[in-house]
Design goal:
alpha/beta, seven-stranded parallel sheet
Length: about 170
């Protein structure tokens, strides 16, 4: 029996951000997750707390598929948040950031710390477009523009979703 599930799903888009965040960023991440799910996107996150959990919850409530790319080797080492439907236990620690970035057609960074910055850098290094929503601001040392990095310092969840979708689909 064949399934048409794959044909119904859109691209995989990663949402990255800090494991701890305030209510404003959590609400923003929830709205991003929901918007991606409504667009038929498969959501990739680090599978843990903070921005990752908020985006996962938004996506699940909107009927989306949530995949968590976790740093530990099993649920005892790194339990996923309750909204992760598919947990990938990598056993790679922070190196899992590369798995997440390379598995995404685009990445939305929301707020974030050093781990988020590493995910942004890995994505850009491998030519995966990044939408930075109230996140890191980057400038190349030579002053050249980075065409794959899109900063939305005061953007909305809907703007980030629309831009990430356009980038992921090559529009």
């Amino acid at each position: 029996m064949s399934s048409s599930l794959g044909a119904q799903r859109g691209p995989q888009i990663g949402v990255v951000g800090a494991a701890e965040c305030g209510p404003d960023l959590a609400a923003l991440a929830t709205d991003v997750g929901a918007g991606l799910a409504r667009a038929g996107v498969v959501l990739l996150t680090g599978g843990r707390s903070g921005v990752m959990a908020a985006a996962s919850a938004g996506a699940r409530r909107a009927g989306g598929l949530v995949i968590g790319v976790l740093p530990g080797g099993d649920a005892a080492a790194t339990p996923p948040n309750p909204d992760v439907e598919v947990a990938l236990f990598t056993g790679l620690g922070q190196a899992r950031n590369q798995v997440l970035a390379l598995s995404a057609a685009a990445v939305i960074a929301i707020g974030g710390g050093w781990g988020t910055l590493s995910e942004i850098a890995i994505a850009l290094k491998h030519r995966v477009p990044v939408v930075a929503l109230r996140s890191w601001r980057l400038a190349r040392p030579d002053g050249a523009a980075e065409p794959l990095f899109h900063e939305l310092a005061e953007g909305t969840a809907a703007e980030a979703v629309d831009l990430a979708l356009a980038l992921a689909l090559g529009r």
